[in-house]
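Issue 218. Parser rejects a valid record. Input:
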Amino acid sequence: MKYLAAYLLLTIGGNATPSAKDITALLATVGIESESERIESLIAQLKGKDVNELIAEGTSKLASVPAGGAGGAAAPAAGAAAAVEEKKEEKKEEAKEESDDDMGFGLFD
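Output the parser choked on:
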């Protein structure tokens, strides 16, 4: 993914066809060592293809993927609300215990 991200950053920056040297140099600026075999493989797969068209094609494919799990999102939220209420109750109890400090005498009286 880091090689693809570097390739896309270079493309957005105006370099229509980044070379392996360009990608290696970009990754080196942030201290990432690169593997030339992977970079060469990426460049070979993207050679002659428009990045914007590839992104649009991938987006259309992702649109058909079901996004399950939306129904289960409410349960954790309800659990979190209950936990917040418990914490509020604990704080109230602690406040009551601390108010017992005034027993008719003070430390510096």
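Fixed in the parser; the record now loads. The two ends are 70 Å apart (CA to CA).
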